[in-house]
Amino acid sequence: MTDLRILHNPRCSKSRQTLQLLLEQGLEPTIIEYLKTPVSAQELQLIVKQLGFSSARQLIRKNEDAYKQQNLEDHTLTEESLISAMLSSPKLIERPIVVFNGKAAIGRPPESVMDIL
What we know:
The protein has about 120 residues and is an alpha+beta fold. About 30% of the residues lie in helices and about 15% in strands.
């Protein structure tokens, strides 16, 4: 199944659990280790839409050091600025993200990705 993708961080337990869940379902996603192979701005914008989010802000991990360092709590920042921040510091991207058939889901909890399969 080549159109099933997971943005994966192997150091993240939720990411590992979500990948394991997909494999247990007999699914073979394309694994994108986004810290090693960054996604593009266009891909991130599309994922925000596929998740049904109204803003890229909803995809940002607020507990990361880079969040504070880049002053991302500033609500006057544009969508482009938020996307740019995630591209420059990919650890800011919430994980894991599963994309399938034009929809996306965050695996927190891992079972939540079943809704799009």
